[in-house]
């Protein structure tokens, strides 16, 4: 294992600083100091990185490649130091140089190449693969602009570009010699030569895919895995791209721009699919580059392609990388001369797929004519996959034309990516028990009947190294002092903490730690937006993407109701609360942006009303991102997980909150169900419609939001307040919000769940009054959170899907 003593570290650091900046430490800025440290850590990591690679080559172990359009890594310095096992030494050494490590870490820009849950999950998975000694690599896009930066101006969201590379990125290494060429457009010629079909692709637009590698450090195990992100560049002048650029300056510039657009920006949508051709281009770009480099590497190491599936597992994170399937087919057939049958067997045995949402509006389907024009050879292969698949259906479901056309991969003029992903892979998984059941019973039921063995569940997880050890050092210390340190490598050992739930001293210590974290967050809030919040109030938090199904609206309506009650009776006996929101809305999602505005309008009114004596405060924190989550989550008392049942595939912040000792108020949706099963009904607050009730309303109707509203004076009042000028002189401002609830019958049952939600909140209020009772519940939540470590999730993927890793070999 990597070790270093304090003096050597100091020497190395000063040397690095001088080399990098050409000046003495005293003359450097904080950013200089951060950069020198990052760069030094990368040097330390480099040796293990190379060694890991060599070891994988020597043992010939199965390699996993996790393909994802998004990797939401956040900051890397703190976690790399932690995983290397030198964070404490480094902190002491820097202290002696008059540098505060915690502060320095704040100078790192978040690497925000993801929208939300799906991208962060990919990042947690990389951390777990490295920490479990699983040869697992990430493959994605190096967007020049990450997820936009959110500013709240006059209560509304304004988007600014996230040029995260402005000050450089110490973690990445560019590897131009490992570039690949990706081909778009053009024509395909098929010729029969000696009884074999030969395929040539001509007049295409070539794009150079250049890889940038980032080391992923395992926890104290000398493993350093690789995340490879591809950047698009024009091919060099020597390349003969004759038909469109030679001698024509303007065309050459156009070409350059069109190429660079590919890795320019991350699409800031996570639930609404638009058929933007650039996005399809992004998908094929990184998938083709990734697959080509895997196969090239495999062959260079003497691999035999006929057993590719025994040596390599390719996992696709949602449908975005589904073109991996026809791309592998293309290479095996066109470039390696394999038969369709052999190529198909190898491809399907290699690829596995995770579904992350059941929202119909997020399902990817590409217009077939656009697809064909952009990717002519890939389209031919998809057509052939579909022809053979439909043949199989015809033989099985004689005469059932509707069923067959519903299941077809190409239909109604579109290529349906989820269908291609299911047909072309050997495993399809959902991300929580309920979600997988809904996939099997509803969304993908026809495919489940056809391929029951492909479907399986892998409940999500989070890395406890970032989300507990790194972000909550005081809680980590308490755990180590009470139950020892075995939980760090075996997170389910956190269960041993259960016996301390009844220990008065431990409960008091838990309360003290929480209060400390709340004080830190209160300072961040004060510095950022000038609002004073009381660390002794209950911190009631909802942070996540803004979406109608996640129901920030429900949370907002109950705050409005509570405010009305307080105005009526300022002496109302309630536990003082600070309501904290954060999250970004997709720039084109009008209702979500209006939700942010409404919350801010409510905040403005509530925070400035002297009558209610500061009993409640509402804060909307700007620019939610991984590093901000790391400050908010350890400071939370109550975690809001209030999506409409059936809509949230899993959720992962729910797991982060419980691991940090927050209690959860939740619907029985996504992984909330499993959290409830772990902690028991007494240690979570559940409310709202059940799965059955929701599905019945969707199928049979019978819900009238209008009637629900009219029968509840509280709802009548708060819904009127949205449009009567109470929160904005402009009565039109929140009209859409109102209409969604009342004119369009409240698609997500916000009004229906209102009463039950208020009762649940009253229960939270009552529990919080007895701090011992509350901390007992907090302790039980922490103790049962180990199962939600992504180490458990990754072990399940490795043994159940990929057939990889140490655990698999020792089964
Ligand atoms: C979908 C789309 C649709 C087209 C436009 C661009 C785009 C980008 C990303 C996505 C993926 C959305 C799906 C997603 O993020 N699902 C979340 O996945 C989490 C990890 O499994 C899970 O915890 C959340 O419940 C689920 O909403």
UniProtKB/TrEMBL annotation:
Function in brief: Allosteric enzyme that catalyzes the rate-limiting step in glycogen catabolism, the phosphorolytic cleavage of glycogen to produce glucose-1-phosphate, and plays a central role in maintaining cellular and organismal glucose homeostasis. Phosphorylase is an important allosteric enzyme in carbohydrate metabolism. Enzymes from different sources differ in their regulatory mechanisms and in their natural substrates. However, all known phosphorylases share catalytic and structural properties.
Species for this entry: Clostridium polyendosporum
Sites of N6-(pyridoxal phosphate)lysine modification: 656
Chief subcellular location: cytoplasm
Cell compartment(s), UniProt: Cytoplasm
Enzyme class: transferase
Name used for this protein in its record: Alpha-1,4 glucan phosphorylase
The keyword Transferase belongs to this UniProt entry's keyword annotation: yes
PROSITE patterns according to UniProt: PHOSPHORYLASE (PS00102)
One Pfam family of this chain: Phosphorylase
Catalytic activity field: [(1->4)-alpha-D-glucosyl](n) + phosphate = [(1->4)-alpha-D-glucosyl](n-1) + alpha-D-glucose 1-phosphate
Keyword flag Signal: no
InterPro entries: Glycg_phsphrylas, Glyco_trans_35, Pyridoxal_P_attach_site
A biological process from GO: glycogen catabolic process
GO molecular function annotation: glycogen phosphorylase activity; pyridoxal phosphate binding
EC number: 2.4.1.1
């Amino acid at each position: 294992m990597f070790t270093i003593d304090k003096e050597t570290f100091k020497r190395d650091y000063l040397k690095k600083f001088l080399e990098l900046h050409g000046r003495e430490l005293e003359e450097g800025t904080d950013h200089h100091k951060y950069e020198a440290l990052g760069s030094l850590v990368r040097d330390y990591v480099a040796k293990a990185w190379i060694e890991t690679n060599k070891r994988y080559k020597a043992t010939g172990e199965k390699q996993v490649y996790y393909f994802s359009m998004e990797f939401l890594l956040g900051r890397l310095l703190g976690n790399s130091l932690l995983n290397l096992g030198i964070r404490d030494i480094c902190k002491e050494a820097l202290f002696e140089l008059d540098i505060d490590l915690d502060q320095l870490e704040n100078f790192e820009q978040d690497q925000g190449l993801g929208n939300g849950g799906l991208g962060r999950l990919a990042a947690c998975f990389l951390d777990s693969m490295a920490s479990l000694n699983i040869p697992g690599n990430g493959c994605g896009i190096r967007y020049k602009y990450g997820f936009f930066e959110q500013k709240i101006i006059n209560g509304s969201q304004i988007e600014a570009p996230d040029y995260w590379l402005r000050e450089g990125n110490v973690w990445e290494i560019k590897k131009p010699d490992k570039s690949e060429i990706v081909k778009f457009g053009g024509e395909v010629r098929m010729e029969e030569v000696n009884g074999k079909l030969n395929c040539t692709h001509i007049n295409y637009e070539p794009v150079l895919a250049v890889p940038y590698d980032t080391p992923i450090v395992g926890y104290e195990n000398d493993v350093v895995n690789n995340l490879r992100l591809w950047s698009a560049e024009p091919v060099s002048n020597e390349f003969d791209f004759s038909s469109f650029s030679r001698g024509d300056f303007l065309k050459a510039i156009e070409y350059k721009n069109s190429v660079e657009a590919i890795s320019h920006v991350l699409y800031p949508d996570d639930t609404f699919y638009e058929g933007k051709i650039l996005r399809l281009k992004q998908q094929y770009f990184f998938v083709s580059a990734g697959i080509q480099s895997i196969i090239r590497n495999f062959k260079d190491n003497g691999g035999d392609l006929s057993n590719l599936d025994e040596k390599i597992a390719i996992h696709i994170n949602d449908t975005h990388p589904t073109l991996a399937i026809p791309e592998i087919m293309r290479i095996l057939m066109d470039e390696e001369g394999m038969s369709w049958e052999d190529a198909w067997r190898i491809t399907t045995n290699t690829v596995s797929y995770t579904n992350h949402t059941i929202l119909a509006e997020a399902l990817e389907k590409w217009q077939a004519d656009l697809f064909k024009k952009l990717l002519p050879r890939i389209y031919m292969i998809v057509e052939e996959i579909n022809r053979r698949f439909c043949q199989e259906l015809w033989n099985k479901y004689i005469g059932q034309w509707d069923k067959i056309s519903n299941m077809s991969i190409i239909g109604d003029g579109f290529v349906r990516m989820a269908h291609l992903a299911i047909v072309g892979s050997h495993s399809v998984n959902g991300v929580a028990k309920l979600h997988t059941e809904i996939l099997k019973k509803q969304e993908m039921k026809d495919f489940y009947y056809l391929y029951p063995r492909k479907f399986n569940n892998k409940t999500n997880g989070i890395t406890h190294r970032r989300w507990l050890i790194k972000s909550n050092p005081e809680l980590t210390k308490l755990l180590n002092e009470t139950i020892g340190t075995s939980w760090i490598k075996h997170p389910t050992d956190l269960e041993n903490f259960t016996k301390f739930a009844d220990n008065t001293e431990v409960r008091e210590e838990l309360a003290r730690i929480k209060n400390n974290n709340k004080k830190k967050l209160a300072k961040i809030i004060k510095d950022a937006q000038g609002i004073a919040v009381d660390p002794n109030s209950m911190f009631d938090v909802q942070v996540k993407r803004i979406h109608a199904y996640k129901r920030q609206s429900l949370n907002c309506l109950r705050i409005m109701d509570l405010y009305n009650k307080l105005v009526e009776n300022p002496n109302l006996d309630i536990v003082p609360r600070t309501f904290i929101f954060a999250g970004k809305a997709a720039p084109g999602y009008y209702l979500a942006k209006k939700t942010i505005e409404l919350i801010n309008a409510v905040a403005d009114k509530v925070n400035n009303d002297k009558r209610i004596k500061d009993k409640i405060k509402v804060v909307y924190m700007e620019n939610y991102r991984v590093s901000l989550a790391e400050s908010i989550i350890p400071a939370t008392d109550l975690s809001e997980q209030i999506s409409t049942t059936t809509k949230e595939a899993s959720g992962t912040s729910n797991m982060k909150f419980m691991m940090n000792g927050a209690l959860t108020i939740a619907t029985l949706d996504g992984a909330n169900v499993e959290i409830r099963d772990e902690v028991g009904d007494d240690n979570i607050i559940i409310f709202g419609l059940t799965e059955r009730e929701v599905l019945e309303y969707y199928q049979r109707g019978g819900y009238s939001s209008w009637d629900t509203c009219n029968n509840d004076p509280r709802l009548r009042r708060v819904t009127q307040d949205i449009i009567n000028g109470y929160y904005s002189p402009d009565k039109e401002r929140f009209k859409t919000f109102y209409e969604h609830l009342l004119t369009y019958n409240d698609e997500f049952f916000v009004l229906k769940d209102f009463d039950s939600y208020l009762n649940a909140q009253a229960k939270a209020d009552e529990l919080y009054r007895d701090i011992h009772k509350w901390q007992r519940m907090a302790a039980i939540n922490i103790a049962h959170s180990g199962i939600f470590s992504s180490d458990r999730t990754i072990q399940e993927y490795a043994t159940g899907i990929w057939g990889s890793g140490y655990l698999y070999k020792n089964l």
